[in-house]
Design brief:
mainly beta, globular, 7-stranded mixed sheet, single chain, 118 residues
Length: 118
């Protein structure tokens, strides 16, 4: 099982920006054939969604709700994944998790609460 260490999160005003990071002590980047590395958010009291996902070959997919506002990027040398969030809205308030999936299973970070409020 891969350990994922998250940082970032906090309170930000609507329209503001925030960047989350996710680092693995063991090498998982660049992704091998079966691996995916993604950001998932859990909303208070309702189902969550996959925000953005990275697959081998650096293919990135975004949820429609964040396209044009969020950017997923990585640093292979630091074995880290980032989620740059811009133009944040109150409806982006959620706990954000990074997770890694490969043929052996899934590993999740502990989550980071992002609150968008004035």
């Amino acid at each position: 099982q891969v350990r994922l260490v998250q940082s970032g999160g906090g309170l930000v005003q609507p329209g503001g920006s925030l960047t989350l990071s996710c680092t693995a002590p063991e090498r998982i980047l660049p992704l091998h054939r079966e691996g995916t590395l993604s950001w998932f958010r859990q909303f208070p009291g309702r189902n969550g969604e996959v925000v953005a996902g990275l697959t081998r070959g650096d293919s990135i997919n975004y949820a429609d709700s964040v396209k044009g506002r969020f950017i997923l990027y990585k640093d292979d040398a630091k074995n880290s994944l980032y989620l740059q969030m811009e133009k944040l809205k109150p409806e982006d308030t959620a706990t954000y998790f990074c997770y890694y999936r490969d043929g052996a299973g899934e590993s999740w970070g502990k989550g980071a609460l992002v609150t968008v409020s004035s």
